[in-house]
Amino acid sequence: MNEDQQAIDQVLSGNLAAFEVLVTRHQRRLLGLLAHACGSRDEAEDLAQEAFARAFNKLHLYAGQAQFYTWLCRIAMNLLASDRRRKRLENQSKREGFEAASNSVGLYANVEKELERTEMQQCVQAAIALLDEEKRTVLLMRDFDGLDYEAIAQVLEIPVGTVRSRLHRARLELKDILEHRIGRFEAQL
Amino acid sequence: MTHQREYQEEWLTAYLDGELDEEQLRIVRKRLEDDPAAGRTFEELKEVRRMIGTLQRWSGSDLKFTIDPAMAPRLEEPKPEVPEVAPVIEVTEARRGLGQRSRPSRPWRRWTTIFATAACLLIAAGFFWTRFNDLSSGYLSLNTSNRAVESRKADFATEHLAAPQSIAPPSEPLVETQTAFAANNNELPAQAESADLARSFAAGQEANNVLIQQAPSDPSRLLQRAQNPAPPQPQVSRKSMLRFNTESESQATKKIDDLPKTNEIALSDGKSTAVAADISVGASSLDATVQTQPGMPPLPALASAAPSPAPASAVAEKAGMSASGSAERAGMSMPGIAAAGPTPKMSGVRQERALAEIKENTDKVDVGAKLHLGVEKETLQLSLSVDYPVEVDVIRSRAWPEADVASTFQQVIRYLAVGELETINNATKPVAIEYLLALVTVDASSPAHAAKLEKRISQKQLLRISATKAGKNVADKQNTPVSMFATILFTNREQADTILAELGTSGEKSAPLTPLWIVPSGDSGRAAGAMAPVVLVLRKP
């Protein structure tokens, strides 16, 4: 029995404090994923908080067929999707952020080694923000968070084949964005 | 039979991620050898993946996740063998009764179902019996402000319960009260003389206690008890104890985070009203003391509208009025403040609002969540009184954030400031630590006092809750504030005496049971028109 399952069993048997083990173990990973998925640290914190709260509340429904993190991730992604629907947020602000990032990168014209890591991160983050929600999510879950296709399929409730095709398109699209908006990317490749 | 599958470009992605089966793997490798374009695409995909991998990981702070028992998941089913005496039930019921919103567990649910069924039957019987007998000569209400308490009051385990010695007839009967009484007492209201309702209620609580302790395994036993109730045993003590035993110290420790945040149990007999929430935690029990205070007005009807309590921003402005009202009740004088006038009476609506606000704000600070047993426990008990006492438990652990302490005390000050609440000192926790809460306004003509106070605060000898500096002393080139309104938490009286003396004030201790301790300003400060510091003493017995 893995440590997550042990903690879950303890919670369900009345030791509610054992849930802290799960929070401690998974919070930073989830926060990182959500921060990039929604583009806001504050929002990521709110979503993660809510995801953990819901996971706690619904823990008796956790069947143990998937990893706890996968299950938690699914809750979080559903929350994110709901939040997006509710707010009707488009990428306007992110486009602005991307433009800013692109301009920033442009200052270093074709000298990748001079790019600060954070600037590269900002650039990639901004490019990711231009992807649609579906592609961005699957891309981050795979390439940032390291979930395998099966887990991603469970989280997003889509077939594995869809994960693969969506991921492929997301990577290609991201490459195009980086190429066209920065211009430097092609040379780098 | 195997199917020859055609190459798909997206297999490059799956190849990169190691998600291909053997046949797909072979096909992709062959493609990469034969098709340079596929090779370039593969390299691009790889680079994209690498770049995403460089994205910054979470570098922020951890979540401040607080486990809320009210949000607890459905717990595991109980073992088939349920003991006849089930202490766990007592704990769960007690905790829920003491303010927990929800803590489901299977034994609890099972017994709740049983009790609920029986209680409904008894309530219905009591209701009709009450109607038939037209019992209108007295009433006794058990009012709980907590939903959990409301839903579990029939399950309270009570060792003793106080009752006022004299009970005046109420203006009108309360059927709900009577039915609740019936449910608790397991006897019909008509069997109790109206003048002895309170005592009967106490006896009913005891009977109820027996029921819970013995935990009958089926409703028929409960009904049997209802048909043959235990004889009433009058209780005249003014202090009552609700005791909820836990199985063990470890069990108490494990569930310590479920300690009630705010809890009120209001008892009204038409003449006196008592609200109590004095809850202490032992190694193996939770004790709640109900203290009846005769002479307090009954809970008024929610008839007249009245303005809501003043906003928090009005604290400073109204502090004088607060002190005045409290001082009047305490029979003390307070130079410089008395002109603010007497404290207005609160209407029922206003009381309700105040109560709701207290509860709301107490929940916000999440008291009790980090409470520990033993010497680590710090308990601050604030007893706030409207026209009738309303007690609010504030349990503070050492790890409690300063901001939460500040907000709590600001809330206390807020209620004091609107002149509707006063403190009473009835802390009974054996490990309660003495606290002093002080409102200090430093003399405008004495920048030295302000400097001393600031120094103490900087040295962490005082905890400054809030401080408002008003204006600047033009003559003071160091820009010392000419006045400073500060709310300060002292940790013991000696410290307060020392510091207040240093500030040019002298202590004037009241009688031991007088909660409001007013320290008038010193001669120099009074001469300058300085407002006297107000110190609220909250000390262990």
List the helices and strands and how they pair.
The complex is a heterodimer of chains A (189) and B (541).
Chain A: H1 3-12, H2 19-38, H3 41-57, H4 68-87, H5 92-106, H6 117-130, H7 133-144, H8 149-156, H9 160-182, H10 185-188
Chain B: H1 10-16, H2 22-34, H3 36-53, H4 87-97, H5 106-133, E1 141-144, H6 147-152, H7 175-185, H8 197-214, H9 219-227, E2 239-245, H10 249-254, E3 265-268, E4 273-276, E5 278-281, E6 285-291, H11 315-330, H12 348-364, E7 378-385, E8 389-396, H13 402-417, E9 422-423, E10 435-442, H14 447-458, E11 463-469, E12 484-490, H15 493-502, E13 516-518, H16 523-527, E14 534-538
Antiparallel strand pairs in B: 1-3, 2-6, 3-4, 5-6, 7-8, 7-9, 10-12, 10-14, 11-12, 13-14
Helix pairs in contact in B: 2-3, 5-7, 5-9, 7-8, 11-13
What does this structure look like?
- The complex is a heterodimer of chains A (189) and B (541).
- By secondary structure, chain A is mostly helical.
- Chain A has 10 helices and no strands.
- Chain A folds into 2 domains: 3-87, Orthogonal Bundle (Rna Polymerase Sigma Factor, Chain: A), CATH 1.10.1740.10; 92-188, Arc Repressor Mutant, subunit A.
- Chain B is flat.
- The relative contact order of chain B is 0.08.
- Chain B has helices at residues 10-16, 22-34, 36-53, 87-97, 106-133, 147-152, 175-185, 197-214, 219-227, 249-254, 315-330, 348-364, 402-417, 447-458, 493-502, 523-527, and strands at residues 141-144, 239-245, 265-268, 273-276, 278-281, 285-291, 378-385, 389-396, 422-423, 435-442, 463-469, 484-490, 516-518, 534-538.
- Chain B has a 5-stranded antiparallel beta sheet.
- Chain B is of the alpha+beta class and 541 residues long.
- Helix content of chain B is 38%, strand content 14%.
- Chains A and B meet through helix 2, helix 3, helix 6, helix 7 and helix 9 of A and helix 1 and helix 3 of B.
